[in-house]
Design brief:
This protein is of the alpha/beta class and 326 residues long. The protein contains 15 helices and six strands.
């Protein structure tokens, strides 16, 4: 059944007339009960939300004051959705294991990994990793729009950051600071401005002081630009790379599914995609499947998938990437 803390949070949000927080806690409670094996009770809770016409599978505006800075969603992604190296997957599993057994660690005076920096090329799985952390922990995923935070609130960004970290403390979730190099650049860079330095100093302070139940994820495509003081503030730093041949093969097999022809020259396809990111390969496969559906093709042959990969090679060379693999 619900823990004492969850009941207190429900009552508090009710009397504070904080409807969005109340809904979020109910969602978390349903996930908690399902994990405990109380499937019927969890289903009843979800049905109550559905009958009340409460949307649980789209964006949830947690806080009106921060509504334009935080995008919230419920994730169903799992670790098997991510195709990366064994080392990266092992480190993600360790983060999850420590979260699932955080109470056991607390009994020994230890804390679970909660602050994670993901770095690497665009399209290699950083954003998807944050989504998976949310899905595996049954926590909402909250994405902090760093570009809006800096451009819209220049001069009061540190104040907004404090409000965000107060929100993090009161609302357990996975928080993704995407495009983190917006504020995380080296403080000694000649082109840095005083305001950005103040923002970064504030972030470092808030991050170090944070002792919430949330998981904080920062993602960057340019780790070399980051201030060195950042790295020691995170519990884990994971570097992402382009997929190797084995990963490309697995990704293509997964994405094409039943549409993959038995005569498909997978070796040839893999070689053609060797310089693409996970995102671009996924996009090429999706485009191939759509072509097959639209033209009533029973399977995808070499010429079709090779054409779509070539299009992505051209697009990737121009810096275009728009898939969840980020």
């Amino acid at each position: 059944m619900a823990t004492a803390e969850q009941i207190k949070m429900l009552i508090q949000s009710h009397y504070e007339k904080n409807e969005e927080r109340f809904k979020t806690i109910v969602i978390q409670l349903a996930a908690y009960e399902a994990k405990k094996g109380h499937q019927a009770f969890a289903r009843d809770l979800r049905e109550l939300l559905e009958k009340s016409k409460i949307k649980t599978d789209n964006i949830i505006p947690f806080n009106r004051e921060l509504q334009d800075l935080i995008i919230t969603e419920i994730s169903e992604k799992k670790l098997n959705n991510l195709i990366v190296s064994k080392e990266i997957k092992s480190r993600i599993k360790r983060i999850l294991l420590e979260y699932w057994q955080k109470d056991k660690l607390k009994k020994h005076g230890l804390t679970n990994r909660r602050k994670v920096l993901l770095a690497g090329l665009p399209g290699t799985g950083k954003t998807l990793t944050a989504t998976i952390l949310a899905g595996e922990t049954d926590l909402p995923l909250c994405t902090i729009m760093m570009d809006k935070l800096v451009t819209k609130y220049m001069g009061e960004t540190s104040v907004k950051l404090r409000q965000i970290f107060d929100f993090i403390k009161d609302n357990p979730a996975v928080y993704l600071f995407d495009e983190f190099d917006t504020i995380g650049s080296e403080r000694s860079l000649d082109n840095d401005v005083g305001e950005i330095r103040r923002i970064l100093n504030s972030f470092l302070q808030f991050l170090e002081q944070d002792n919430s139940e949330s998981i904080i994820v920062a993602a960057t495509n340019n780790p070399k630009l980051l201030d060195q003081a950042l790295f020691r503030r995170f519990d884990d730093v994971i570097y992402y790379t382009l997929p190797d041949k084995e990963q490309i093969k697995r990704l293509i097999n997964n994405m094409l599914g039943r549409y993959k022809s038995t005569n498909l020259s997978l070796h040839k396809v893999v070689e053609s995609a060797i310089e693409l990111s996970h995102a671009e390969i996924s996009k090429a496969c999706n485009d191939s499947v759509k072509e097959a559906i639209l033209h009533d093709l029973e399977s995808i042959e070499d010429d079709l998938i090779m054409k779509m990969i070539e299009e992505r090679v051209t697009a990737y060379g121009r810096g275009i990437s728009n898939n969840e693999y980020r």
